[in-house]
Write a structure and sequence with these properties.
mainly beta; six-stranded antiparallel beta sheet; four-stranded antiparallel beta sheet
Length: about 140
């Protein structure tokens, strides 16, 4: 951005190919910018256009997280035509599966187990926004994905 008094608050280093799913989708993200904005949060924004399992195992974080599932239609946000499975639980074994079939926001407190996250049916694209209240996205423990 321009070398001005407030130019330091902007970055254009936000577009990249998904490291986990190359060729499947691109991502708009600040996750790789650990100190951006003081390092208080990171944001991923992904257009989901076909079914796949994004996260296969339950995991947890030391920070709260917000997941948003929106219709990717600029004309009508009610045109949500997808089925997304998300499991939440107090431990890795005893999870409660939830099925998302309309625009939804999900708050995940620090320490709560969550996953798998399965974009099971995608008839219309979904805009998935993942906000981690941390400048550095890390999982607790050793999870494969």
């Amino acid at each position: 951005m321009p070398n001005t008094k407030f130019g330091k608050f902007f970055t254009t280093d936000v577009l990249k190919e998904s490291p986990k799913f190359p060729g499947v989708w691109d991502i708009s993200s600040t996750r790789h910018l650990k100190g951006f904005g003081g390092g208080h949060l990171s944001v991923d924004s992904i257009f989901i256009t076909r079914p796949f399992v994004m996260v296969s195992q339950p995991h947890q974080h030391e920070f709260p997280q917000y997941l948003h599932f929106f219709a990717a239609s600029p004309d009508d946000q009610r045109l949500f035509d997808a089925e997304i499975e998300m499991t939440l639980g107090e431990d890795e074994v005893h999870g409660e599966k939830h099925i998302i079939t309309r625009p939804t926001a999900l708050y995940i407190p620090a320490g709560m187990y969550h996953g798998p996250l399965n974009f099971k049916v995608i008839h219309r694209p979904v805009l998935f926004v993942d906000i981690a209240v941390s400048g550095e996205y890390k999982r607790v423990g050793n999870t494969p994905d």
